[in-house]
Design a protein that fits this description.
Elements (H helix, E strand, L loop, with lengths): L15 E4 L2 H14 L14 E5 L13 E8 L14 E16 L5 E14 L8 H15 L4 E7 L3 H10 L3 E4 L2 E6 L11 E6 L1 H11 L10 H6 L3 E9 L8 H6 L5 E8 L5 E5 L3 H16 L17 E10 L3 H19 L3 E6 L17 E9 L43
Parallel strand pairs: 5-6, 13-14
Antiparallel strand pairs: 1-3, 2-12, 3-4, 4-5, 6-15, 7-15, 8-14, 8-15, 9-10, 10-11, 11-13
Length: 426
């Protein structure tokens, strides 16, 4: 996510922008991250809640699984580029990555791939905002995107993050593009009963790849390197849900040739081993109320109390990606898969499970979530390349949204700070 730290530039700053050096810059980057905690205007003081992200000592954890990635830092001019002294101070940072994804498809579902760049984690220290630092970081990152052959660049933020939207649309040439929703559900202390109306099977990565390339061939942002995503150590498996009683002999090719009337699929990504989240600055009453639900759930799990996990201490996240399906029963089967993922997260010690879906996603109705924990996101996009290489598709920035979107990289959301009384359960 791009935080409000990236405000509209008003004055030019003499900051120098350069590539991140892990040995030299880690301490300064961690300090900027602390200063720019999500939802906070001053580090979480004054009873204001904020979402703190602990990157577990790896500032590159959110991008290092991409084929090409880069992190840039902005520092005071006294310590620019090759200096390394003179009281240099890191005052901003940005991360970016480039990969090939589907940008549209023909009626025959033939995928059209393009190189797309993603900007994330833009931060500017509070004392240096509104001076052009954020814009300078973005422009320098776009130069690297072009060198890597990216045709488009996009960013994601919450729809109500006016500062980020203003920076990118008014100052950096981006346009509003897609409005997916981040759906979040807490992990209870009690396990959820498996659905009796669904059978769930685990697919091997090669079989999951075949299914995904068949079903998501024309879905926006579907990655060309889905095989690498599925085989990554952080990917905990792909699960296929079928109506109870449906025979399954493990033959994916037979499934693709004659799929059942309804089915659903999703994969689980372990964010817990990459970063942890923590809601800070919560009122004591909220902490006490959440703790009470956990105590009751632990003492009497048979009551199935919708307990609120301890979001006020570092907690982990499992992200559900590759969510899809077909047929009238697909939403119901998705719900069964989400229950299965919840129990996986419970065993793994996570606090929440989350997914991100398009506004028109057909199986969205089957995803259990608490609205107070989620967010309505906004993706903005910019064309970097000259000319058009997509035939009938033309300029992707002007293409109407499809029903689905493929999201394989989660981003912490400040909406988790709104944790409150349960409003919807599995």
């Amino acid at each position: 996510m791009v935080e409000a730290a990236a405000a509209v530039a008003e004055e030019e700053h003499d900051a120098a922008v350069r590539e991140y050096d892990d040995v030299r810059d880690r301490g300064g980057v961690e300090e900027v991250e602390r200063e720019c905690e999500v939802g906070s205007s001053g580090g979480g003081g004054g009873g204001q809640m904020c979402l703190f992200t602990d990157l577990l000592g790896d500032p590159l954890c959110r991008i290092r699984n991409s084929p090409d990635f880069l992190m840039l830092v902005a520092e005071t001019a006294t310590g620019s580029a090759g200096g390394g002294g003179g009281g240099a101070e890191i005052i901003g940072l940005v991360r970016g990555c480039v990969k090939s994804v589907v940008c549209g498809g023909s009626h025959s579902k033939d995928p059209i791939y393009t190189k797309v760049a993603y900007i994330l984690g833009l931060r500017v220290s509070p004392n240096h905002r509104r001076k052009g630092v954020g814009r300078k970081l973005v422009e320098r990152m776009e130069q690297w995107f072009r060198q890597k052959g990216a045709e488009y660049s996009y960013m994601a933020t919450e729809q109500d993050n006016e500062a980020s939207v203003r920076l990118f649309t008014s100052r950096c040439g981006y346009s509003k593009f897609r409005t997916p929703s981040l759906l979040v559900h807490p992990v209870f202390r009690h396990a959820l009963k498996p659905s009796r109306r669904a059978s769930i099977v685990r697919l091997e990565p090669r079989d999951a790849e075949r299914l995904y390339r068949w079903h998501f061939a024309a879905v926006e942002f579907f990655p060309a390197d889905i095989d690498a995503v599925l085989s990554n150590a952080l990917s905990l498996g792909t699960f296929l849900a079928l109506p109870a009683g449906t025979s399954w002999d493990g033959d994916v090719e037979a499934f693709l040739a004659a799929p059942p009337a309804s089915w659903a699929v999703l994969s689980v990504w372990n964010c817990m081993d990459a970063f942890r989240l923590e809601v800070r600055g919560a009122p004591r009453l909220m902490r006490a109320a959440a703790g009470a639900t956990r105590l009751v759930d632990r003492a009497a799990p048979w009551l199935r109390i919708p307990s609120i996990p301890n979001l006020f201490a570092p907690f982990g996240l499992y992200f559900l990606y590759g969510l899809g399906g077909a047929g009238p029963g697909a939403p119901r089967l998705v719900r069964a898969l989400c229950r299965h993922a919840h129990n996986m997260a419970r065993r793994g010690g996570c606090g929440v499970v989350a997914t991100e879906v398009a506004a028109l996603e057909p199986v969205r109705a089957g995803v259990p979530h608490w609205p107070r924990l989620g967010a309505e996101d906004l993706w903005c996009i910019k064309r970097l390349a000259d000319g058009y290489n997509h035939g009938l598709l033309g300029d992707w920035t002007k293409a109407p949204p499809g029903r689905s979107i493929f999201v394989d990289r989660p981003a912490p959301s400040r909406a988790l700070c709104r944790a409150s009384v349960p409003s919807r359960t599995f």
